[in-house]
Design goal:
about 500 residues, alpha/beta, five-stranded parallel β-sheet, about 20% strand, GMC_OxRtase_C, GMC_OxRdtase_N, FAD
């Protein structure tokens, strides 16, 4: 297609889901994905290849503001980062849609309420075939439709951990997951968290919404199509063309609508690199494109009992939100606690280089592995920039007091549960812990590039639908919120742009 009705840039959660929402509308849709389909190879269940050798990591470097280069953990495949995600499809809590005070400042409100957004959460849960249970978590907001599938079952060591936490008066709850556990384990006895999905075990962007979208003959996917910049019309009020490179050749497509879904970093980069009269890039009258970059403050925590082996294969079925809305003592929010996929010695080796392998194997075999996640607050000086061909990240972490507090209280809890050794380690910039916020939505074009339906205030035919639009990071995995907004925006486009 050279003149499609719609071009969608990116096939991750945002791009694939909005494509599924627009499929069947009669519009011709071209999806441009810079990566290729993830192949099935012996590396897909090899923890050494994945976590030590970095087999799937991108062959690119970004720079910190100041000059130091690093290899980012973002993936470029059909389905985007979701091919490696933990498949946690959890709703923001109702309170996350309102302004909420944290130790590091105020988390801003969304431009609409949870109640307005709730039906789209339900539709997204159905699309991603989410497994879950209601009634376990006191912070769980209202659901108009129950989960269609029961939760992925706890393995015996995790059932024991659930009982131990309950014994402290806490409220452990089943993680809502896009995982067909039987299909996943059929392809290999491993966890799925951070493992590539080459089968049907995880419902990711490719196996869920993209598969549904491509059933429409009017939807076409081009791979190896790396979008370099957008071209504005002569009056700068619309996007006239999308320029991309494929197999070394620069190509151009001229759609009626452009939906940018390249991810929180790369969507901002594409806009910043796009020519504009003021030199600030497109959709950037507010000077907010690339700003307000957020990446969850998070740590891994290992609760170790040398007397008991953890025989779990996948482990990741449990969360704890007792400290999500307060610190448990009437103070400010801390964050979410959830299980990691089961680690082994190779995974530990990726982070602890000096210890002998037998010690790492013993530690991994006797640990229950947790993920502590706290909100990173938006800051205009926390930003993504471009310098020639380089991507520059200036991440100013905020609200670290919450992570310190959550680490302290969970260490106390795990020791009270009988784990004599509790170790923790924060994640750094190499781990894309839910990057978001760089092209945020809002009500005011002076302070936000996008309106509440993710349409650019500056260019009427441009929408940005990925983690970029999030006005806050909350303290839970954002995939379901991105998918729900993608369905909401697709519905809006059908009603306002595709009417006969």
């Amino acid at each position: 297609m050279t003149n499609p009705d719609i071009v969608i840039i990116g096939s991750g959660i945002g791009g694939a889901t909005i494509a599924s929402g627009l499929a069947g509308s009669g519009a011709s849709i071209l999806m441009l994905e810079r990566g290729e389909k993830l192949p099935t190879t012996p590396h897909t269940r090899d923890t050494r290849a994945i976590f030590v050798d970095g087999h799937y990591r991108p062959k690119e470097m970004w720079r910190e503001a100041g000059g130091a280069a690093f290899n980012p953990g973002n993936y470029y495949y059909v389905g985007g980062n979701s091919k490696f995600y933990g498949a946690v499809l959890i709703r923001y809590r109702r309170q996350d849609f309102s302004a909420m005070e944290h130790y590091g400042g105020v988390s801003p409100a969304w431009p609409f309420s949870y109640e307005e957004f709730e039906p789209w959460y339900s539709k997204a849960e159905q699309l991603f075939r989410v497994r879950g249970a209601l009634g376990e978590d006191p912070t769980e907001p209202f659901h108009s439709i129950p989960y269609a599938f029961g939760p992925v079952p706890d393995e015996p060591p995790i059932a024991r951990a659930r009982a131990e936490l309950k014994g402290l008066g806490l409220h452990p709850a089943s993680l809502p997951l896009g995982v067909d556990i039987d299909a996943w384990l059929k392809d290999g006895k491993t966890g799925w968290d951070a493992f590539p999905n080459t089968g049907a075990g995880k419902v990711d962007a490719q196996t869920g919404p993209l598969a549904a979208a491509l059933a429409d003959r009017n939807v076409e996917l081009e791979t190896g199509a790396h979008v370099e910049y957008l071209e504005a019309s002569s009056d700068a009020r619309t996007i006239a063309a999308v320029h991309y490179r494929q197999n070394g050749t620069l190509k151009k497509v001229t759609p009626k609508l452009v939906i940018l879904s390249a991810g929180a970093v790369n969507s901002a980069v594409i806009l910043l690199r796009s020519p504009s009269p003021d030199g600030k890039g497109l959709a950037n009258r507010s000077d907010q494109v690339g700003r307000n970059f957020m990446n969850h403050n998070s740590s891994a925590m290992l609760a170790i009992d040398p007397r008991r082996r953890n025989t779990s294969v996948y482990q990741k079925t449990l969360m704890l939100n007792d400290y999500y809305l307060s610190d448990g003592k009437g103070g400010k929010p801390l964050g979410n606690v959830q299980l990691l996929g089961k680690i082994d010695g190779h995974i530990l080796r990726a982070n602890v280089r000096l210890a002998p392998k037998f010690a790492l194997d013993f530690m991994a075999g006797h640990a229950v592995d947790w993920y502590l996640m706290c909100e990173d607050l938006p800051d205009p000086e926390s930003r993504i920039m471009v310098d020639g061909k380089d991507i520059v990240m200036q991440w100013r972490r905020s609200n670290m007091q919450s992570l310190d507090g959550l680490t302290k209280v969970m260490r106390e809890n795990f020791r009270a549960c009988g784990y004599p050794i509790v170790l923790s380690r924060p994640f750094d910039k190499r781990t894309p812990s839910h990057q978001c916020g760089t092209v945020k939505m809002g009500d005011d074009p002076a302070t936000s590039p996008l309106d509440p339906f993710c349409r650019s205030f500056d260019h009427r035919n441009l929408f940005v639908v990925d983690a970029s639009f999030l006005p806050n990071s909350a303290a839970v995995n954002p995939a379901l919120s991105i998918a729900a907004q993608a369905l909401r925006v697709a519905d809006h486009i059908r009603k306002t742009e595709l009417v006969a």
